[in-house]
Design goal:
- The chain contains 2 helices and 9 strands.
- By secondary structure, the chain is an alpha/beta fold.
- The strands form 2 sheets. The protein has a 5-stranded mixed β-sheet, with no helix packed on it. Strands 3-2-5-7 form a 4-stranded mixed β-sheet, with no helix packed on it.
- The N terminus is likely disordered.
Length: 170
């Protein structure tokens, strides 16, 4: 459902960076509506297989993703081998989350979210009740992905600003 994602990104642009400070606390946390904004099949339509800089439609072969003050995961799209531990490092000054879209991970894959939540709703509730799952400046979150396929994830407080990412496990 690319139209919703485009709409949500437009809202984020219209809102400016006003939401950027919403997770500046060093406590953990996340929020959002839980809709992934994708076609629902996790295929990441329009993707290419090149290993470039991770922006646009290119996949970058790396196991480290930076979370920035620009409200972005860098690179946005990564590709790893099954069994790889992916590290999300907060290199910015504001907090972020890593929250999988429950319906946008491969069938049979374990759900993941910073804060150790076992469902999207639990992650959203945890963030709403004390910013649980928030990854403060200078800290990181790791997840090991065993199941092949494409995983889509987002930052709960910054989803409206387009802070979303994808991991392709091969």
């Amino acid at each position: 459902m690319a139209t919703r994602r485009t709409f949500v990104r437009g809202l984020g642009i219209a809102a400016g960076v006003a939401l950027a400070g919403c997770s500046s606390s060093s406590e953990s946390g996340s929020s959002g509506d839980g809709d992934s904004g994708s076609g629902g099949d996790g295929s990441g339509s329009g993707d290419t297989e090149s290993g470039g800089g991770g922006s646009g439609s290119e996949w970058t072969e790396t196991s480290t993703v930076e979370m920035t003050d620009g409200l972005a995961y860098e690179p946005k799209k990564i590709q790893v081998e099954a069994g790889t531990t992916v590290t999300f490092e907060n290199v910015g000054s504001i907090g972020h989350t890593v929250t999988a879209y429950e319906e946008e991970i491969p069938d049979g894959a374990d759900y993941f979210a910073s804060g150790g939540f076992d469902s999207l709703q639990a992650a959203k509730d945890g963030y709403s009740n004390g910013q649980e799952g928030n990854i403060p400046k200078g800290e990181s979150y790791e997840v090991t992905l065993e199941t092949t396929g494409t995983y889509e994830y987002y930052c709960i407080p910054h989803e409206m600003n387009g802070m979303v990412g994808q991991i392709k496990v091969v």
